[in-house]
Design a protein that fits this description.
- The chain contains 14 helices and no strands.
- The protein has 268 residues and is an all-alpha fold.
- 75% of the residues lie in helices and 0% in strands.
Protein backbone atom coordinates (compact mmCIF):
# COMPACT_ATOMS: atom_id res chain seq x y z
CA UNK A 1 0.00 0.00 0.00
CA UNK A 2 2.73 2.44 0.98
CA UNK A 3 4.74 1.41 -2.08
CA UNK A 4 1.81 2.31 -4.37
CA UNK A 5 1.61 5.77 -2.82
CA UNK A 6 5.22 6.42 -3.85
CA UNK A 7 5.17 4.53 -7.14
CA UNK A 8 5.28 7.71 -9.21
CA UNK A 9 8.72 8.46 -7.72
CA UNK A 10 10.61 5.47 -6.25
CA UNK A 11 13.16 7.80 -4.64
CA UNK A 12 10.39 9.16 -2.41
CA UNK A 13 9.71 5.63 -1.20
CA UNK A 14 13.40 5.01 -0.49
CA UNK A 15 13.61 8.33 1.37
CA UNK A 16 10.52 7.37 3.35
CA UNK A 17 12.10 4.06 4.38
CA UNK A 18 15.30 5.85 5.37
CA UNK A 19 13.42 8.49 7.35
CA UNK A 20 11.47 5.80 9.24
CA UNK A 21 14.79 4.03 9.98
CA UNK A 22 13.99 0.97 7.89
CA UNK A 23 17.59 1.13 6.71
CA UNK A 24 17.88 -2.38 5.30
CA UNK A 25 14.97 -1.95 2.90
CA UNK A 26 16.00 1.63 2.17
CA UNK A 27 19.46 0.41 1.13
CA UNK A 28 17.93 -2.10 -1.29
CA UNK A 29 15.73 0.57 -2.86
CA UNK A 30 18.55 3.10 -3.15
CA UNK A 31 20.84 0.46 -4.68
CA UNK A 32 18.21 -0.58 -7.22
CA UNK A 33 17.50 2.99 -8.29
CA UNK A 34 21.16 4.01 -8.29
CA UNK A 35 22.38 1.15 -10.46
CA UNK A 36 19.48 1.67 -12.89
CA UNK A 37 20.11 5.42 -13.17
CA UNK A 38 23.83 5.59 -13.93
CA UNK A 39 23.16 7.83 -16.95
CA UNK A 40 21.88 10.45 -14.49
CA UNK A 41 24.99 11.01 -12.37
CA UNK A 42 23.24 13.31 -9.89
CA UNK A 43 20.47 10.81 -9.14
CA UNK A 44 22.80 7.80 -9.20
CA UNK A 45 25.31 9.42 -6.82
CA UNK A 46 22.55 10.47 -4.42
CA UNK A 47 21.02 6.99 -4.31
CA UNK A 48 24.30 5.12 -4.01
CA UNK A 49 25.58 7.44 -1.30
CA UNK A 50 22.33 7.02 0.63
CA UNK A 51 22.53 3.25 0.13
CA UNK A 52 26.01 3.28 1.64
CA UNK A 53 24.84 5.32 4.62
CA UNK A 54 21.89 2.99 5.19
CA UNK A 55 24.19 -0.04 5.10
CA UNK A 56 26.56 1.56 7.61
CA UNK A 57 23.61 2.07 9.93
CA UNK A 58 22.65 -1.60 9.62
CA UNK A 59 26.20 -2.69 10.46
CA UNK A 60 27.14 -3.85 6.95
CA UNK A 61 30.32 -1.88 6.20
CA UNK A 62 31.63 -4.46 3.70
CA UNK A 63 28.59 -3.99 1.45
CA UNK A 64 28.77 -0.24 1.90
CA UNK A 65 32.45 -0.28 0.92
CA UNK A 66 31.66 -2.11 -2.33
CA UNK A 67 29.09 0.54 -3.23
CA UNK A 68 31.50 3.37 -2.47
CA UNK A 69 34.23 1.73 -4.54
CA UNK A 70 31.78 1.39 -7.43
CA UNK A 71 30.95 5.09 -7.12
CA UNK A 72 34.61 6.12 -7.09
CA UNK A 73 35.27 4.14 -10.27
CA UNK A 74 32.09 4.93 -12.19
CA UNK A 75 30.96 8.38 -11.00
CA UNK A 76 34.24 10.33 -10.79
CA UNK A 77 32.46 13.69 -10.50
CA UNK A 78 31.56 12.76 -6.91
CA UNK A 79 34.75 10.91 -5.98
CA UNK A 80 35.25 13.00 -2.81
CA UNK A 81 31.94 11.95 -1.29
CA UNK A 82 32.37 8.32 -2.28
CA UNK A 83 35.93 8.34 -0.90
CA UNK A 84 34.68 9.78 2.38
CA UNK A 85 31.99 7.11 2.51
CA UNK A 86 34.65 4.46 1.89
CA UNK A 87 36.74 5.97 4.68
CA UNK A 88 33.80 5.63 7.09
CA UNK A 89 33.22 2.04 5.98
CA UNK A 90 36.89 1.17 6.52
CA UNK A 91 36.76 2.76 9.95
CA UNK A 92 33.74 0.61 10.82
CA UNK A 93 35.76 -2.41 9.62
CA UNK A 94 38.66 -1.25 11.85
CA UNK A 95 40.95 -1.04 8.83
CA UNK A 96 42.75 1.94 10.32
CA UNK A 97 45.64 1.90 7.84
CA UNK A 98 43.16 2.35 4.98
CA UNK A 99 41.50 5.22 6.88
CA UNK A 100 44.86 6.99 7.12
CA UNK A 101 45.47 6.62 3.37
CA UNK A 102 41.96 7.71 2.37
CA UNK A 103 42.10 10.74 4.68
CA UNK A 104 45.27 11.86 2.90
CA UNK A 105 43.38 11.86 -0.42
CA UNK A 106 40.76 14.22 1.04
CA UNK A 107 43.13 16.84 2.44
CA UNK A 108 42.45 19.34 -0.37
CA UNK A 109 38.67 18.90 -0.39
CA UNK A 110 35.71 20.25 1.56
CA UNK A 111 35.73 17.03 3.58
CA UNK A 112 39.21 17.64 5.01
CA UNK A 113 37.90 18.38 8.54
CA UNK A 114 35.74 15.24 8.66
CA UNK A 115 38.49 13.06 7.24
CA UNK A 116 41.08 14.41 9.70
CA UNK A 117 38.84 13.62 12.67
CA UNK A 118 38.50 10.01 11.51
CA UNK A 119 42.22 9.88 10.76
CA UNK A 120 43.15 11.09 14.23
CA UNK A 121 40.84 8.65 15.99
CA UNK A 122 41.95 5.74 13.82
CA UNK A 123 45.57 6.50 14.70
CA UNK A 124 44.66 6.71 18.38
CA UNK A 125 42.81 3.39 18.23
CA UNK A 126 45.81 1.64 16.72
CA UNK A 127 48.06 3.15 19.39
CA UNK A 128 49.87 5.93 17.50
CA UNK A 129 48.83 8.71 19.88
CA UNK A 130 51.60 11.15 18.95
CA UNK A 131 50.58 11.14 15.30
CA UNK A 132 46.91 11.34 16.27
CA UNK A 133 47.58 14.48 18.34
CA UNK A 134 49.64 15.95 15.51
CA UNK A 135 46.80 15.78 12.98
CA UNK A 136 44.08 16.79 15.41
CA UNK A 137 45.99 19.85 16.59
CA UNK A 138 45.96 21.18 13.00
CA UNK A 139 42.18 21.63 13.14
CA UNK A 140 40.35 24.69 14.37
CA UNK A 141 40.13 24.84 18.15
CA UNK A 142 36.76 23.67 19.52
CA UNK A 143 35.66 22.19 22.86
CA UNK A 144 35.29 18.75 21.27
CA UNK A 145 38.68 18.92 19.62
CA UNK A 146 40.26 19.93 22.94
CA UNK A 147 38.47 17.05 24.70
CA UNK A 148 39.88 14.64 22.14
CA UNK A 149 43.40 16.03 22.58
CA UNK A 150 43.09 15.61 26.35
CA UNK A 151 41.96 12.02 25.90
CA UNK A 152 44.83 11.33 23.50
CA UNK A 153 47.26 12.79 26.04
CA UNK A 154 45.82 10.86 28.97
CA UNK A 155 48.35 8.14 29.88
CA UNK A 156 47.17 4.56 29.58
CA UNK A 157 47.35 2.65 32.85
CA UNK A 158 49.20 -0.65 32.63
CA UNK A 159 50.81 -3.33 34.76
CA UNK A 160 54.00 -5.25 33.98
CA UNK A 161 53.18 -9.00 33.90
CA UNK A 162 56.74 -10.00 34.81
CA UNK A 163 56.85 -7.60 37.74
CA UNK A 164 53.48 -8.93 38.88
CA UNK A 165 54.72 -12.51 38.68
CA UNK A 166 57.95 -11.56 40.48
CA UNK A 167 56.06 -9.97 43.35
CA UNK A 168 53.96 -13.10 43.80
CA UNK A 169 57.11 -15.20 43.62
CA UNK A 170 58.46 -13.29 46.64
CA UNK A 171 55.16 -12.97 48.51
CA UNK A 172 52.07 -14.94 47.44
CA UNK A 173 49.25 -12.58 46.50
CA UNK A 174 51.48 -9.51 46.09
CA UNK A 175 51.19 -9.59 42.29
CA UNK A 176 47.41 -9.75 42.47
CA UNK A 177 47.41 -6.81 44.91
CA UNK A 178 49.63 -4.87 42.46
CA UNK A 179 46.89 -5.37 39.83
CA UNK A 180 44.13 -4.28 42.20
CA UNK A 181 42.72 -7.76 42.83
CA UNK A 182 42.71 -7.62 46.61
CA UNK A 183 40.33 -10.55 47.16
CA UNK A 184 42.49 -12.79 44.95
CA UNK A 185 45.58 -11.52 46.74
CA UNK A 186 44.18 -12.42 50.15
CA UNK A 187 43.06 -15.83 48.96
CA UNK A 188 46.44 -16.65 47.38
CA UNK A 189 48.34 -15.56 50.49
CA UNK A 190 46.05 -17.37 52.92
CA UNK A 191 45.95 -20.72 51.08
CA UNK A 192 49.68 -20.79 50.36
CA UNK A 193 50.51 -19.73 53.92
CA UNK A 194 48.24 -22.35 55.47
CA UNK A 195 49.50 -25.15 53.23
CA UNK A 196 53.13 -24.15 53.69
CA UNK A 197 52.72 -23.77 57.44
CA UNK A 198 51.07 -27.18 57.70
CA UNK A 199 53.90 -28.77 55.74
CA UNK A 200 56.52 -27.24 58.04
CA UNK A 201 54.61 -28.38 61.10
CA UNK A 202 54.23 -31.97 59.92
CA UNK A 203 57.82 -32.25 58.71
CA UNK A 204 59.69 -30.58 61.57
CA UNK A 205 57.49 -30.30 64.66
CA UNK A 206 54.98 -33.16 64.64
CA UNK A 207 56.58 -36.33 66.05
CA UNK A 208 53.54 -38.57 65.71
CA UNK A 209 53.53 -41.49 63.34
CA UNK A 210 52.51 -40.64 59.76
CA UNK A 211 53.44 -36.97 60.01
CA UNK A 212 56.05 -37.15 57.24
CA UNK A 213 53.61 -38.25 54.48
CA UNK A 214 51.24 -35.51 55.63
CA UNK A 215 54.08 -33.01 55.39
CA UNK A 216 54.97 -34.18 51.90
CA UNK A 217 51.36 -33.94 50.72
CA UNK A 218 50.73 -30.49 52.22
CA UNK A 219 54.13 -29.30 51.02
CA UNK A 220 53.34 -30.44 47.48
CA UNK A 221 49.98 -28.68 47.61
CA UNK A 222 51.66 -25.53 48.95
CA UNK A 223 54.16 -25.60 46.08
CA UNK A 224 51.38 -26.06 43.53
CA UNK A 225 49.36 -23.19 45.00
CA UNK A 226 52.50 -21.03 45.06
CA UNK A 227 53.20 -21.74 41.38
CA UNK A 228 49.55 -21.19 40.52
CA UNK A 229 49.65 -17.88 42.40
CA UNK A 230 52.63 -16.77 40.26
CA UNK A 231 50.85 -17.77 37.04
CA UNK A 232 47.68 -16.05 38.22
CA UNK A 233 49.59 -12.85 38.98
CA UNK A 234 51.05 -12.85 35.46
CA UNK A 235 47.56 -13.25 33.95
CA UNK A 236 46.13 -10.63 36.30
CA UNK A 237 48.48 -8.06 34.78
CA UNK A 238 47.48 -9.11 31.25
CA UNK A 239 43.80 -8.85 32.18
CA UNK A 240 44.39 -5.44 33.75
CA UNK A 241 46.07 -4.15 30.58
CA UNK A 242 43.35 -5.61 28.36
CA UNK A 243 40.65 -3.96 30.49
CA UNK A 244 42.39 -0.59 30.35
CA UNK A 245 42.83 -0.86 26.58
CA UNK A 246 39.16 -1.68 26.08
CA UNK A 247 38.17 1.14 28.41
CA UNK A 248 40.31 3.63 26.46
CA UNK A 249 38.88 2.37 23.15
CA UNK A 250 35.34 2.78 24.45
CA UNK A 251 36.10 6.33 25.57
CA UNK A 252 37.53 7.14 22.14
CA UNK A 253 34.54 5.72 20.28
CA UNK A 254 32.06 7.47 22.56
CA UNK A 255 33.82 10.80 22.03
CA UNK A 256 33.95 10.27 18.25
CA UNK A 257 30.17 9.90 18.22
CA UNK A 258 29.90 13.43 19.64
CA UNK A 259 31.33 14.87 16.41
CA UNK A 260 28.93 15.63 13.56
CA UNK A 261 30.58 13.50 10.88
CA UNK A 262 27.65 12.29 8.78
CA UNK A 263 27.98 13.58 5.21
CA UNK A 264 25.43 15.95 3.78
CA UNK A 265 23.77 14.19 0.85
CA UNK A 266 21.48 16.55 -1.04
CA UNK A 267 18.77 15.16 -3.21
CA UNK A 268 18.93 16.43 -6.79
Amino acid sequence: MIYLLFLYNPVDFADYLYKTQDFRRAALEYERIGFLSLSDTLLASYCLLKAGEALLKTGEPSRAARIYLFGIRNIPAFWEKFTYGLLRARFAQEDFYAVDSLAELLQNTDLKWHATIYRSFSLALKGDLDKAKKYLSLLKKTPLRDSALMLFTKPLKSRNPFLSAGLSFILPGAGQAYCGRWADAGQSFLITFLMGGSALYYLFFDTTKGSTPKGVITGTLAALFWLGNIYGAFNSALDYNDYENRKKEEELRNLLECFDLEPEIKRP
